[in-house]
Amino acid sequence: MDILIVEDELEISQLIQHSLTKEGFSCRISRDGLNALQMFQEQPPDLIILDLMIPGLDGLEVCARIRQKPGAKDPYILMLTARGEEIDRVIGLSTGADDYMVKPFSPRELVARVRALLRRSLRQGGQHQVNRTQHFVIDLDQHTAVRQINSQPAETLDLTTLEFNLLNTFVSNPGRVWNRTQLIDKLWGNDFFGDERVVDTHVARLRKKVEPDSASPTFIKTVVGVGYKFEDSL
User: Fold this and answer.
1) What one-character-per-residue DSSP string does the chain give?
2) What is the pLDDT of residues 136-152, one digit of tens each?
């Protein structure tokens, strides 16, 4: 697994690199935002450890630009910051980060979170099954999700692994109301670390890809005070 470390503090970047290399990961280091984007374009990594406060472009901007770029890989992003205010965590997750750690951190915990993120893509492997609803076909074997609305041509959705698994969870259980804890248990299990509101971020990103109007969801609906449910109706 290839990991890109974006951190301008030499001691921290070397500590991260040493901790991960010792566990068998391949690591590259970038010390500013613009160089990180260039390295991402030249060789997309499997995971990015991204400091919030870096020269050039800050971590939030780097994260947002990576999420806007279509490509063969949509890497997991673990954001680092020296600040621990709640608003920073919310902003970081809203730009597309998958997890969030505040400095100073334990190298052992960092490695555990990296492993947890990279295991997500394996969580629903090995299933040979197709889930169908009126407007969606989820092929677990081919790992494809197709949406067809009324007379419009069928559209294969461009989903990350986590978005695919989240959509499959909803489609497989139409009408069921899921709270954050249940979705975390379903998608991450014991591998989950961090703020449970990361679920809201991923639901919002999924809505942008599956809903005719993400501002007024038709399929993935919010149940106020509880969570989310899937309804396949127009």
Assistant:
1) -EEEEE-S-HHHHHHHHHHHHHTT-EEEEE-SHHHHHHHHHHS--SEEEEESS-SSS-HHHHHHHHHHS--S---EEEEEES---HHHHHHHHHTT-SEEEESS--HHHHHHHHHHHHHGGGTTTT---EEE-SSEEEETTTTEEEE--TTSPPEE----HHHHHHHHHHHHSTT-EE-HHHHHHHHTGGG--S-TTHHHHHHHHHHHHH-SSTTS-SSEEEETTTEEEE----
2) 988 887 788 999 887 77
